[in-house]
Design goal:
about 270 residues; about 75% helix; globular
C-alpha cells in the first residue's frame, strides 16, 4: 500500500510535489475501503475527490491520475498471464485471444484520447451550447492532461520499478497463503499466475468488494494446478479477507478521523 501511494504521487509528477505522501495514503485507503462497500468502483471517485482538496487541482485531473494508476496495475497481471500461456494451458474462460483483445482495446482508447484531443473538443462545441461546452471541455481537458503524463519518460521510468516491486510483494503474500494452507502443487511462479487471474475479477462490474467474481476467478486459477473446489474455496476466502483487511482497517480509521475533526468531504 505504501508503494502504491508513492507511485500515485510519482504519476502526478510536478503537480503532486507539494502534497505530502500521507495525503495519498489517506485518500488511497479510504477509496479502496469504499470499493469494498459500494458497487462500480465508487471508491475511486471518492479517492480522487479526497486528494483534490489537498491542493489547487481539479477533480477531473486527479481522477485521471487514479485512472492511470489502475491502468498501470493491469499491465503486470496481463503480462504474467500472457507469458504463462506458453507454458500452461489456460482455462477456457481465459484465452490468449481475449487477453489480446483487452490489451488492444486499452491501447486504442488511450491512443485515440491522446491523438484526437482537438477533434473531441470541436465535437463538443458543435453538439452543446457555449456555456455547457466550455464546462465539459474543461473537465475533459483536465482529464486528458493527466493521461498525457504517459508521454513523460521520466514518469514512466520511475513507475516501472515501483509497479514491479508492488506486484512482486503481492505475489509473495499469495505464495505465503499457499504454503500456510498447503494448497496442492502451486509453485512460486504459480502464485504469480493465481494472483494475476484473480485480479481480472476487478475488471468485471459486480457486487461491492468483488464478492463472487473474486472467488470464482481464484478457484478457476487454482484448478489449473489440480486443486479441488473445497480447498480452493477456502483459499479464495482467506486471500480475499487478507487483501481487504489492511485497506478496510486504515480506511475506516481515516474516515472516522475526518468525521470527528470536521474534515469530511461535503
Amino acid at each position: 500500500i505504501a508503494l502504491r501511494c508513492y507511485r500515485w504521487k510519482v504519476i502526478g509528477h510536478t503537480n503532486y510535489e507539494k502534497i505530502p505522501w500521507i495525503d495519498f495514503f489517506r485518500a488511497t485507503n479510504m477509496g479502496l475501503m469504499l470499493n469494498a462497500f459500494v458497487p462500480l468502483r465508487g471508491g475511486d471517485i471518492f479517492q480522487a475527490y479526497t486528494l483534490s482538496k489537498k491542493g489547487v487541482l481539479s477533480k477531473s485531473y486527479v481522477l485521471s491520475t487514479v485512472f492511470l494508476e489502475r491502468l498501470v496495475d493491469f499491465v503486470p497481471p496481463l503480462t504474467i498471464i500472457f507469458v504463462s500461456s506458453f507454458f500452461i494451458t489456460l482455462p477456457e474462460e481465459i484465452t490468449l485471444v481475449r487477453l489480446l483483445l483487452i490489451i488492444s482495446a486499452v491501447v486504442i482508447i488511450l491512443f485515440a484520447a491522446l491523438k484526437c484531443k482537438r477533434h473531441i473538443m470541436k465535437l463538443i462545441e458543435r453538439v452543446l451550447s457555449a456555456a455547457h461546452s466550455e464546462k465539459l471541455k474543461g473537465l475533459i481537458g483536465n482529464f486528458l492532461k493527466g493521461i498525457e503524463l504517459l508521454k513523460d519518460k521520466t514518469v514512466i521510468m520511475k513507475i516501472i520499478p515501483l509497479t514491479i516491486s508492488m506486484w512482486f510483494l503481492t505475489a509473495v503474500s499469495v505464495y505465503m497463503i499457499v504454503l500456510s494452507l498447503d494448497v496442492g502443487k502451486v509453485t512460486f511462479w504459480g502464485a504469480f499466475l493465481v494472483m494475476a487471474i484473480t485480479v481480472l475479477s476487478v475488471t468485471i462490474p459486480s457486487s461491492p468488494g468483488y464478492v463472487g467474481t473474486w472467488h470464482f476467478f481464484c478457484i478457476l486459477a487454482l484448478s489449473m494446478f489440480g486443486v479441488d473446489r473445497t480447498p480452493a474455496a477456502g483459499f479464495a476466502i482467506l486471500y480475499h479477507f487478507l487483501a481487504f483487511l489492511p485497506i478496510t482497517f486504515f480506511g475506516i480509521i481515516f474516515f472516522l478521523e475526518d468525521i470527528l475533526t470536521g474534515k469530511r468531504p461535503t
